[in-house]
Amino acid sequence: MNPLRLTSDATKQVFSDGNLVVTRGAVNSRGGVGTFAPTSGKWYWEGTLTTYAGGTINEIFVAAVADDISTALGFSGDFTGVRPVDGLVTKFDDSETIFAGGVGVQGDVYSFEMDLGIPQIEIFKNGSSFVTDTTMTAADVAKGIGPAYTIANNSKFTFNFGQQSFVHTPSTGFLSLNSSNLPTPTIADPSDYFHTELYTGNGTSQSRTFDFEPDLIWFKDRSITANHSLYDSVRGVTKRLSSSISNGESNQTTLTSFNSDGFTINGDGGGDAINASGDSFVAWNWIEGSTPGFDIVSYTGTGSAHTEAHSLGAVPDMMIVKNRDAIEDWFVYHQGIDSTPEGDRLKLNSTTGSSASTVWDSTAPTDSVFTVSDDDPVNKLDDAFIAYLWAEIEGFSKFGTYTGDGAANGPFVWCGFRPAFLITKRTDIAGDWLMMDSARNIFNVITKRLISDSNVGEGTTNTLDFLSNGFKLRETSANINATGGTYVFAAFAESPFKTARAR
């Protein structure tokens, strides 16, 4: 189970045997979840009432793991669970029914078979099925579904995810919920498609080398106040944009080439340096293609609402659009803003929260096109535009949302991989775009961060941990973890969960 994602007063739970045994003393009950939250597949695990003191609090259940754990009783979101004291079963549709077959005593083994293709969850006690829940929705599954529990005073649960022989035999096709049974990720080595390059400026020519030719490079001087610099292979090496200002495109000569194994820079670049002698720099690099789920689209404004084709082969989860010819804000679409993100926008160069907007013509993107309205920032007649589009790739990228709790021991956010790069943005009110990566922070806690909407140099504060399957908030500031604050994020992987190890 996951000792980093618990209900309040987490110190009252004791974990042992590799976090597979959870014990609660003579204090109020608390709950928690597992470390796995798959979105597909057929999975099996067992939970034993090793020590059972009765009471209405003990429950073993599965839950939409992206939902919040907010009370001593477990979740504020959706779940399927059984309460052994009386066999009460709660389903994803919030219905509750007593099942005599669910009543348990000390030593009983509860088994779970979770088929996310249907989707449905079947619960067994001592090998006998007593309930099947088919009320889970596709939206629930998309959050990630995994094991969870609430545990009462003087109780102990023991979980078996295949680390030892199961007491009962899973049905045909069901796999034990552990990393060896996770599907092989589409991208086994994320560094083939995303890379963070750290270097020191030398004021003259230097080449930075890594494993691919980048299509988008995002530079920032970490040492001083200097604007961000974005270059891409579609516009060319001399065409610079900056996320920290609304200015249009400028001509620069500092980036001289995109190479098959990195890039070459020359000179110090003046006030917006990417190679100032002695300064520390970061360059985030992406490669374009349907495999990594990234596309760069250049278009000319028509002044009328229209669609633009893209090559993702999937629906974009995040889009960034900039007018290259005029002083206009950077407009951002993110699928996690709300249930109808096509009617909203964020601004990459601004702290403002999300607001209603017609820039996407109130039309959701599809797997082949996205829509822009007649608004000048995204479609001014005869102006040149650039759009960066990302679609989520399981095990490589995640474009999600979370709610803050204002605690230093803050929320855990599931990604399905260990992050290499993360950018977060508060949406309900104003807040900075915070940028963090594992190259500048080789150990937890992550302290070094930059801000896409500001030209300030690198700041330090205890912000969060990068974990094998997501990130854990460690800060109480309104920018990243205010109580009740809503946030969106984009994350790219260092290692898929199947092969990730601790930092």
UniProtKB/TrEMBL annotation:
Coiled-coil segments on the chain, per record: none
Q: Which PROSITE patterns match?
A: B302_SPRY
Q: Which InterPro entries match?
A: B30.2/SPRY, B30.2/SPRY_sf, DUF7483
Task: Indicate the segments forming the B30.2/SPRY domain, all copies.
Answer: 1-166
**Which Gene3D superfamilies does the UniProt entry name for this protein?**
2.60.120.920
Q: What is this protein called?
A: B30.2/SPRY domain-containing protein
Organismal lineage: unclassified sequences, metagenomes, ecological metagenomes
